[in-house]
Specification:
The chain is an alpha+beta fold. It has a domain at 2-56. It is built from three helices and three strands. A three-stranded antiparallel beta sheet has the order 2-1-3, with no helix packed on it. The mean pLDDT is 81. It holds the Pfam family DUF8199. InterPro entries: DUF8199, HYC_CC_PP.
Length: 120
């Protein structure tokens, strides 16, 4: 939900630089690079280059709602749901492990390897 709010409020620009009908550079968040031709020289009063800027606007205002703005039925549902959800995760009883302090015997030889008995 927070990612949706973040991406819906982001503003950014997309700049494109064309030389004639050929796309030279596309840039997001910075200026597009020129093709190297000077614009408006003495010989050519009109430039063959053009820049196109697209601005993607996000949402400007966010609506904040409080618990008091909801209907009684919705308040009752949210209260019951949160109570049931919180009580869903109760702690476990203390479990008694009878073999907690048991240490297994030392292995003198690995009998399975000596007899070459393997579970496949």
């Amino acid at each position: 939900m927070s990612c949706l709010v973040l991406f819906s409020t982001v503003f950014f620009t997309i700049e494109k630089h064309f030389c004639g009908d050929v796309l030279i550079d596309v840039s997001v968040f910075s200026e597009a690079q020129n093709c190297g031709m000077k614009t408006g020289t003495v010989k050519h009063k009109e430039s063959c280059c053009k820049d196109e800027v697209n601005v993607v606007t996000g949402q400007r205002e966010l609506k904040f709602s409080s618990f008091d703005d909801l209907d009684f039925v919705h308040q009752q549902f949210i209260t019951a749901f949160s109570y049931a959800f919180i009580n869903l995760f109760e702690g476990l009883e203390k479990q008694v492990v009878p073999h907690k302090d048991y240490s297994p015997p030392n292995l003198v030889a690995d009998i399975l390897v000596l007899d070459q008995v393997f579970i496949i």
